[in-house]
């Protein structure tokens, strides 16, 4: 089981829009940098920095195919996290009827956003 610190670090690492897009693309299969460059429409050095960070944290790895680096997912939590992030929820969680400690108080019904 990952410690709270490792969980927080994982969320920080995947919490960047480019890295989320890379991880989503890698759930479809192995990709080389040029595949990602076409898909992401950002520079190769920028993509490489994101890939290096994801690899450093053990989420992805690569193998060499000639001169190409072919990247793939390693950590099985990634597809699960992406599935959760893609879910649509129809309703929010229900509000409590009262304070569970004092058994008093009542939720006014207007949530702050």
Total domain modules = 1
**Low-pLDDT residue intervals, each spanning 5 or more residues:** none
SS field, number of helical segments: 5
Instruction: Output the radius of gyration.
Output: 20 Å
Briefly note the structural class of the backbone.
Answer: alpha+beta
Beta-strand share of residues: 5-15%
Helix and strand succession?
HHEHHEEH
Based on Cα principal axes, name the global outline.
Answer: elongated
Largest sheet: 3 strands, antiparallel
CATH class term = Mainly Alpha
Number of DSSP-assigned strands: 3
Helix content: 40-55%
List keywords for this structure.
113 residues; alpha+beta; Arc Repressor Mutant, subunit A; three-stranded antiparallel β-sheet; 46% helix; elongated
Summarize the structure.
It contains five helices and three strands; from the N terminus they run ααβααββα.
Structural commentary:
This protein has 113 residues and is of the alpha+beta class. Helices cover 46% and strands 12% of the residues. A three-stranded antiparallel β-sheet has the order 1-3-2. A hairpin with a 2-residue loop joins strand 2 and strand 3. The mean pLDDT is 92.
């Amino acid at each position: 089981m990952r410690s709270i610190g490792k969980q927080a670090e994982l969320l920080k690492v995947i919490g960047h829009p480019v890295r989320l897009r890379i991880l989503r693309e890698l759930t479809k299969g192995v990709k080389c940098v040029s595949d990602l460059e076409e898909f992401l429409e950002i520079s190769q050095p920028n993509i490489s920095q994101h890939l290096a960070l994801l690899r450093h944290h053990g989420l992805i790895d690569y193998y060499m195919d000639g001169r190409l680096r072919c990247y793939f997912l390693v950590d099985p939590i990634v597809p699960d996290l992406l599935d959760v992030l893609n879910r649509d929820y129809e309703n929010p969680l229900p509000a409590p009827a009262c304070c569970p400690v004092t058994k008093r108080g009542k939720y006014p019904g207007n949530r702050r956003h």
